[in-house]
Design brief:
By secondary structure, this protein is of the alpha/beta class. The protein is built from ten helices and nine strands. A hairpin with a 2-residue loop joins strand 8 and strand 9. The longest helix is centred in the C-terminal third of the chain and has 21 residues.
Length: about 280
């Protein structure tokens, strides 16, 4: 596996691959890689001739400077994992390499980006679209892979690709969970052992709510989740929304959509964790 730090090196390596007619997959990451990321890389390796994985903590998508500073950075370990997964190129640029000048572009995909994370983290998705669009321009992949744990992000990236007419396929990949159900996240590394146990109540509640929903209304199901998290030690609910999986708009009745998804954000101490589940 090749490790490159500049766009020039990246594009030189890609030019050689493309000269051989090779299909290229891209897996954008912010590093601190885990088995969830590994599943994306392995999928790309299986479906493409070459796989580029970007490892870049993107400052423009953090609306909390403290969160940016505390985000785990583990490049050496990340590269070991990527090599084991069969990645072709690890692209680990500096902030200056990605943003040689400030990116003033504004992306708006309302109403997809004005609800849930868009409401609670203003500017977050604008930063995501800035960096992902730059990576698409740098790599020009045939396919790009994103996890369904960031469910709203995936919907917005699909819409960005549609509107900007990027000639590539977006591949959504299922959430990967620990054996006990906790959704894998780089932020889990910030949890103490006690908090790690407390955080389990998030996925437990979501799984239980799917059974509960079979005999109850949308409003009752939302209340079930809210009360379960409120009663759980160490957790604070930011939001739980039952939405149409395509439009991301809240539903009032199960009949409102054929694709209901529950999206949740919970603070465990200072660590903000997201998860979702299909009904």
């Amino acid at each position: 596996m090749e490790i490159v730090h500049t766009v020039r090196e990246l594009q030189a390596s890609l030019a050689a691959l493309r000269a051989q007619g090779k299909a290229v997959g891209l897996v954008p990451t912010m590093g601190a890689l885990h088995e969830g990321h590994a599943s994306l890389v392995k999928r790309s390796v299986a479906e493409n001739d070459a796989t580029v994985v970007s490892v870049f903590v993107n400052p423009t998508q953090f609306n909390d400077k403290n969160d940016l500073e505390k985000y785990p950075r583990t490049l050496d370990a990340d590269c070991v994992l990527l090599e084991q997964c069969g990645a072709t190129i690890a692209f680990a640029p500096s902030v200056e390499e990605v943003y040689p000048e400030p990116d003033m572009r504004q992306f708006s995909y309302a109403p997809l980006d004005t609800v849930m994370e868009g409401k609670y983290r203003p500017g977050h998705f604008n930063g995501v679209c800035q960096v992902v669009s730059k990576l698409f321009d740098m790599v020009k992949p045939d396919r790009a892979y994103f996890g369904e744990k960031d469910f709203q992000q995936l919907a917005i990236i699909r819409e960005m690709v549609r509107q900007m007419r990027f000639p590539l396929q977006i591949v959504g990949c299922p959430i990967v969970r620990e054996a006990d159900g906790l959704a894998l996240s780089s932020r889990n590394k910030r949890l103490s052992p006690e908090q790690r146990t407390q955080a389990l109540e998030i996925s437990r509640t979501l799984f239980a709510s799917v059974d509960y929903a079979k005999g109850h209304t949308v409003a009752e199901t939302c209340k079930f989740v809210e009360e379960a998290i409120a009663a759980a030690p160490g957790l604070r609910l930011e939001y739980f929304e039952l939405v149409d999986g395509n439009t991301l708009q809240s539903i009032a009745r199960w009949e409102d959509t054929a694709y209901p998804v529950g999206c949740i954000t919970v603070f465990c101490g200072e660590v903000r964790l997201i998860d979702n589940i299909k009904y």
